[in-house]
Amino acid sequence: MKRIRVGLLIASIGSVSSPVSAQPYVGISLGQAYFSDIKASINSPTRKGSQKLDIDDNSLAIKLLTGYEFNQFIAIEGSIGGYDALDGPMGSLGDMRFFAFQGKATLPITQKLNTFAKAGFSYYSARFESIYGDVSDDSVSGKYGLGMEFRITDNFSAAFEWDYMEAEVDIFKLGDASATMSTKISVFSLGAAYRF
User: Fold this and answer.
1) All structural domains of the chain with their residue ranges
2) CATH fit for domain 20-195, picks 3.40.220.10, 3.40.50.300, 1.10.1380.10, 2.40.160.20
3) pLDDT tens, 18-62?
4) Which of 24, 69, 127, 133 lies 20 to 30 Å from 57 when distance is taken between CA atoms?
5) Which residues, in sequence order, are bridge partners of residue 106?
6) Is the pTM for the entire model greater than 0.90?
């Protein structure tokens, strides 16, 4: 009888401590994007310099994501999303879209609550419209994130997340002269995910 009890105890401990099986998931998030340190830099044979731009500094952000959890600690994730246009007296920055690929590390706090961190790269594209014409450009930069996730059921979860990236795109080109716009983008969002 003692051997049976010991065996059952070991089996129950193993079932609690064993990692979650691999799971694919999909999700969506909606939030607010904040653009800081917005600068225009001029590079020409006769002039070089930069200045801050008077332009809207926040807009709506949306993201669709899919990922694969290898276990309860490690996952990979891909996402696509975009931001509403930013308007200012010099022009408008619109068609802002991104594609990101990141690794995700999760630290369970309780059975229902997790914290996580993400790191990877993002491909970012945008179009600048002004009285001088339209210029579209793209760039690649690092993308990082932190968040908390609450497991509502075995399949559904909700999350609060902070994302950060830096972007730089051309806004003017003429011969040897060019101008670029750079900014730091922080996004605070609420989202939901479904695990299969």
Assistant:
1) 20-195
2) 2.40.160.20
3) 445 689 999 999 999 999 888 888 887 777 777 777 777 899 999
4) 133
5) 116
6) no
